[in-house]
Structures are given as structure tokens and as C-alpha cells.
Amino acid sequence: MYGFIVNKTAGSGKGHTTWKQIERALETKKEPYLMSFTETSRDAVRRTNELLESGVKAVVVVGGDGTVSEAAEALVHTSIPLGIIPAGFGNDIARSVGIPGNVSQALDRVFAGNPKKIDVLQLGDRYCLTVAGIGFDGEVAKTVNEASFKKWLNVLKLGRLVYAASVFRVLTSFKPVDVTLTIDGSKQQFSDVWLTAVANAPNYGGNIRICPAAVNDDGRLDICVLHSTHKWPLLRQLPNIFTGKHSANEHISFLKGKKILVEADVPLLVQSDGEVVGETPVEVQTAAEALLVL
After folding, report:
1. Can you give the pLDDT at residue 125?
2. Torsion on CA atoms 37, 100, 1, 55, rounded to nearest 10
3. CA 186 to CA 236: how far, in whole Å?
4. Of 50, 150, 181, 188, which is the most buried if we count CB atoms within 10 A?
């Protein structure tokens, strides 16, 4: 029996319409299932644990990255796989594991039942799947989640504009700081850092390929540090950063490691999978082969 967790409001209501399509397919196949709707933040963690107690053979999330990430937290280090039917705006987690955006194709992949082990990011007692963004990224995530205009843009199905508007808002106020990275015990210092991205997957933020070489099954994390006294050199790099065509230069550094401690002159917000999860100092490490994904 499959267990489904559905975020009806994901993607400005796409979660609801997607579930209706899935429901019809399940009835046609006469496939037994349990289903729970999420109602509040962090609800998917609780719903997943309830489904696990019910003895489901897989937990399938219908929603966006936030809901998927919460469900995955409850499935880490278990034998129950995660299925994903993407229904959000970014759908970066689904994209990073090769799940198609087409509902029927994504559902067929679930029914095929071929789970794969992937690594996850571990930040203290939290687990995340794509990228931990520290500094500028954290401020953008906070601004997105607190934006008074977010609800109305979602109603108008213009939710993607929330992220772009928040980026430009944060650009006007964010100040770069000095950052120390301790990577597998070795310290490196960077001045005037805007963003430190620690990645288990190449893409986040709606397919921004911040660490294009990152993969989620090599037991290592990819790190991208954006550093510059002024914002303009980085702004000129944005088209390449968005498409993953950026390379190491005087303002962009790439590194790799298994355990990364990020410290800064002042506390910096940390986001992962689109949610603010804390502030620096923060230790990020890889939990190798910790999650099964269909």
C-alpha cells in the first residue's frame, strides 16, 4: 500500500489538481493507498511518521520542494522509499533525481518500484536534499517567506516573481562579510563573501545551477563561494550562474568536502530547500546513501 502526502496549495493550487489526476489513476489501477493533506508548516514530517506507522511500502509526496524535504527528513535512514510527484514552482528536488514533471510519467516511476540510494545534507538534526545557502541566500529565503505580496502573486499564478522581487530587495541592503570555512579539518578564509552554497545537487531556486558539478551519490558536497567587494562583478556573472556556466575566477571559488563548518564575522542566515533553518556558525555534512528515492 502506498502512502500519499498532498500539499493542496503547492504551486498556487497545482497540488490539488495534480492529486485529482493521481486519484483517478489509483482508482483505475485499483491500487490501495492512504492519503493525508498537509495543513501547516512542518506538517509533512508528522504525516510521514503516521504513514510509516501504518505500514506503507512507500511515501509519495504531491507538492513542492518544501513538502518533499519535510517528508524526506522522516524517511532518512529507513527502508521506506520516497516518491515525488512534482507540483510546486521550483521542483528542484524532483529535477535533481531525474523525476519528470509530467504527472503520469512521475506516477509510473513510483509504480515501477526501483528505489535508488542518495546522499542527503545534514545540518545538525535537520536533513535537506539540495543546497544549503548561507548569507545572501538565507536573507532571500526569509524575504520570500515573509513577503506580504506572496499570497497575491500566488493567487495570480505569478509565484515565481516572488523570488525575483526578493533577490532585488535583498541586494539593496545585504553587506558581504568575511567567512571562514573548515573543510574536513582544513581552514580557508574568504573576504567580502556574499554567498556560500553547500550543495548535494547542482540546482536550487527554480533550477539555478549554483554547483553544476554536484551529484547526490558521491559521498561529497560541492561548495561555491561568491565573494566580491562590490555587487556589480557578481551581477554580471548572474546569467552564467543561473545556467551553471560559471567557472572559478577571482570572485567565484569552488571546493569539495564531506564536512564543512561555516563561520562568519556576524551571524548569517542559513536556508536549505527554500526554508530558513538557522544561522552561522553552522556545520554541514553529507549523510551518504541515507535516503531511498523512487
Report:
1. 86
2. -70
3. 31
4. 181
Q: Which of 258, 153, 163, 255 is nearest to 204 (CA)?
A: 163
Q: How many CB atoms lie within 10 A of CB 126?
A: 17
Residue 172, classed as helix, strand or coil, is: coil
| Three-class SS state of 116 | strand
Per CATH, domain 128-293 is 1.20.140.160:
no
Contact 204, 279 (CB under 8 A): no
Provide the terminal-to-terminal Cα distance of the chain, rounded to the nearest Å.
15
Question: Can you give the pTM of this predicted structure?
Answer: 0.90
Band of residue 160 on the pLDDT scale cut at 50, 70, 90: low
Which three cell numbers mark 73? 527528513
Helix and strand counts by DSSP (H, E) for the chain: 9, 15
Supply the pLDDT for residue 206: 78
pLDDT of residue 292: 98
Give the whole-angstrom CA distance, residue 56 versus residue 4: 9
CB 263 within 8 A of CB 88: no
With 0-12 / 13-18 / 19 or more C-beta atoms within 10 angstroms meaning exposed / middle / buried, residue 54 is exposed
Distances (CA, A) of 84 to 103, 113, 130: 10, 12, 14
- Residue extents of the structural domains in the chain: 2-114, 128-293
**Homologous superfamily (CATH) for 2-114:** Probable inorganic polyphosphate/atp-NAD kinase; domain 1 (3.40.50.10330)
Range list of β-strands (E), the chain:
2-6, 33-37, 58-63, 82-86, 116-123, 126-128, 131-135, 177-183, 186-199, 221-227, 252-257, 259-264, 269-272, 275-279, 282-293
Mean pLDDT across the chain: 91
The pairing of beta strand 116-123 with beta strand 82-86 = unpaired
Backbone angles phi, psi at 293, to 5 degrees: -125, 135
